[in-house]
Amino acid sequence: MTVERPVIATERLLLRPYEERDLDDLAEIRGHADVTRYLYEEPQDREEVRRVLARRTRMHSLRREGDGLVLAVVLKGTGKVIGDVSLRWTSEAHRQAEIGFVFNPDYHGKGYAYEAARELLRLGFEQAGFHRIEGRCDARNGASARLMERLGMRLEAHLVENEWFKGEWGSELIYAMLDREWDQAHS
Amino acid sequence: MPTLTTPIETARLRLRPFAETDLDALANILARPDVTQYLDTEPMTRQEVASTLQQRITMNRLNQEGDNLMLAIEVKETGQLIGSANLIWLSEEYAQGEIGYTLHPDHQGHGYASEATRALMDYGFREIELHRIVGCCDDRNERSIRLLERVGMRREAHFRQIEWVKGEWCSQFVYAILREEWEARQR
């Protein structure tokens, strides 16, 4: 099933597609060395972020395999974008998707990432009808690994030195969840 | 990087590119349901094997990322074609490869598949200077699991229900070995 420009409200957050006015908030996030340490990108200047944002404002729906959905996570009452969560439709035949998340370090430790990512999993399983959703992170990225565990995802892989990453061999963890596991945890 | 002009020889086997004359022997293998049980293909008709063979004849080199070196496994003593072994160059940037193999059931149980696989891994680490080689199989494929463990690979992933194949959800193991681990085993 397709997903068209979703907007999701949680207790403290609003998840919605990116908009042009989010440039300052996104630049604040993407400019952080802490944020890009385990991402493929280096810290980005405002011009680069402008291009990133232009791409992301178009990633608002899941219509076909290959599409990526990125939702800005807005802290209610402030209007500030404190991070984003993403869902990429990796296979139609096998009903598979990949989840991702990036948050502003100034807002870490409050459970916002969990609150947002959980709703994206819900959307992926209950609305998009995916059978399996996986998430990947650098093996040294403890915060991401803990978040995926907290979300109820299982560690399925530890790929040793499968990438050359920022001047050294990098290893990757892959967590995953099946639709029936989601159902069991939320019925 | 090289087109394979000289066959790879092991104690009992010769690994060489496929040739027009291999049609009967290849058909003998790829038409069998017990061979394709854990592959994502069905048993092939002779005509399908003929077109597969034409493809395989051209798969005689690893010149660039994405190339798949597909070799016939021949018993030196008899000249009989008993299966195939292949090496895919997955990533040039990350120096990654993937091995695969198929053996005629009548010739299983003699260690031929692991002998061929070892030779191809050696080729990958020496000639292509790979950093890591992976092998994947269905998690019910006992024979393949034992082979990958015998040649020194480590189980790195158990992807549950990652594929819908032939009317059911299938799970996959990924095994891997690093060049330094491979070298340590040669001493």
Considering the chains and any ligands shown, give keywords for the structure.
heterodimer; A: 187 residues; alpha+beta; Aminopeptidase; eight-stranded mixed β-sheet; two-stranded antiparallel sheet; 30% helix; globular; B: 187 residues; 8 strands
Quickly describe the structure.
The complex is a heterodimer of chains A (187) and B (187). With 187 residues, chain A is an alpha+beta fold.
* Helix fraction of chain B by DSSP (H/I, runs of at least 4): 25-40%
Report strand order across the widest sheet of chain A: 2-3-5-6-7-8-10-9
Mean pLDDT of chain B: 95
DSSP summary: helix tally of chain B: 6
Class from helix and strand fractions of chain B: alpha+beta
**Biggest sheet architecture of chain B:** 8 strands, mixed
Identify the most extensive interface between protein chains. A-B, 21 and 20 residues
Low-confidence stretches of chain A: none
Termini of chain A, distance in Å? 21 Å
Radius of gyration of chain A (CA) equals 16 Å
- Reported CATH architecture of the domain at 8-135 in chain B: 3-Layer(aba) Sandwich
Number of strands of chain B: 8
Q: In sequence order, what are the helices and strands of chain B, one letter per element? A: EEHHHEEEHEHEEH
Number of strands of chain A: 10
CATH homology superfamily of the domain at 3-131 in chain A: Gcn5-related N-acetyltransferase (GNAT)
Largest sheet, strands/sense/barrel of chain A: 8 strands, mixed
What is the average per-residue confidence, as pLDDT of chain A, rounded to a whole number?
Answer: 95
